[in-house]
Specification:
Layout: H1 2-43, H2 51-54, H3 59-94, H4 106-121, H5 128-154, E1 155-156, E2 159-160, H6 162-186, H7 189-199, H8 208-224, H9 228-235, H10 239-244, H11 249-271, H12 277-289, H13 293-317, H14 326-348
Length: 351
């Protein structure tokens, strides 16, 4: 009996070592791919910058790289990582592989407040602050307000119910969609064009100010999620099991939801709604390394940064010199995979 137990421990240690080595290899591989895609992102745009010109001291080239392409690249990587991390957290929180950050109405709330700002912008005095930050801060505020309202609707007897949270999210999404429809109906052609362009998602015209707004929000979210991996691992077996392990479930739910709101809200504020990154990336990474959330959250963040950087490069080259909105590109990449995912689940269930 002791020999069997000892052999089981040895086998478990070997399996753990294999998984850890696999995880490290994927980290290295994805970081190398991210570095390559980052370099391509610096090169491609309205005009091509060759490998030699990237390191040229020519003032025009340096100005294009430092003031236009570098902040766009950094924002792209941070937004990709943020959306992927929010997707991993959301799917772990709800124990549903099809959960998406938009589920709680965060994206709809951000869109509603952004469109409201575009409607009101023509009738209020446009200060430098409003021109620079108005749209982004409106979207960010909308995400937080809607998330807080959704959370309040889910609380009964001082505790948040995940089932009610989903239903509240569905209701809030429907309400925001209806209000957005009314505002679009009341818009004139110029505002309607702005609304349409923003709603497709765009990484164009990102500057260092937007990067400075985005990075602290993501850092704050990462801080809130610092101990969440253990909670999400425990949640795989259900809330009852998590309570047995001494996890403060309500505290972890609240922290996770606030973190997701910050990640999605700040990303939407800077780039507009970007679909499928938070849904697709967790599935791909889970297939590569398993369901250990400590590894999953980090690798998904790197993969999300890589995916959005590649999508951004493609959006600038597919229809060059025109640029395809990033939201459309991620939908073109993510939607086929989502269909495949649904089909594979249907086959597995034998229906």
């Amino acid at each position: 009996m002791n020999q069997v137990s000892h052999q089981s421990i040895i086998n478990a240690q070997k399996l753990f070592q294999v998984q850890r080595n696999k995880y490290r290899l994927w980290i290295i591989a994805l970081l190398l791919l991210l570095a390559m895609s980052a370099f391509l992102s610096i090169q491609f745009g309205a005009f091509h910058i060759s490998w030699i010109q990237v390191f040229d001291t020519n003032s025009l080239m340096q100005k294009v790289i430092v003031e236009l392409r570098l902040p766009r690249l950094l924002a792209t990587m941070v937004i990709g990582a943020a959306l992927a991390l929010s997707g991993v957290t959301m799917q772990g929180l709800f124990r549903n592989p099809l959960a998406d950050p938009a589920l709680l109405g965060m994206t709809s709330g951000a869109s509603l407040f952004a469109i409201l700002f575009l409607l009101l912008a023509s009738s209020i005095t446009q200060t430098v602050f409003l021109v620079t930050w108005g749209l982004g801060l409106s979207a960010f505020a909308g995400s937080l307000v809607v998330t807080f309202l959704t959370y309040l609707l889910s609380v009964t007897k001082g505790q948040s119910n995940l089932g009610l949270l989903v239903l509240a999210g569905v209701a809030i999404n429907a309400l925001c969609g209806a209000l957005i429809g009314v505002m679009i109906y009341l818009s004139d052609d110029s505002i309607l064009r702005s609304i349409t362009f923003w709603s497709m998602g765009s990484l164009a015209n990102i500057d260092w100010g937007q990067v400075m707004f985005l990075v602290p929000c993501v850092i704050m979210s990462v801080f809130l999620l610092s101990n969440t991996a253990k909670y999400l691992n425990a949640m795989i077996a259900g809330e009852s099991f998590a309570r047995m392990l001494g996890v403060n479930i309500q505290k972890q739910k609240f922290k996770s939801i606030i973190a997701i709101a910050l990640l999605v809200g700040s990303s939407t504020a800077v780039a507009g709604p970007i679909a499928f990154v938070g849904l697709v990336v967790p599935h791909i990474v889970r297939f590569l390394i398993g369901v250990e959330h400590k590894h999953l959250m980090l690798l998904a963040s790197i993969f999300g940064a890589l995916l959005l950087t590649v999508a951004d490069v493609l959006s600038r080259t597919v229809l060059a010199p025109a640029e395809l909105p990033i939201g459309l590109m991620t939908a073109l990449i993510g939607a086929p995979y989502f269909i495949y995912l649904l089909f594979s689940q249907k086959v597995q269930r034998g229906s």
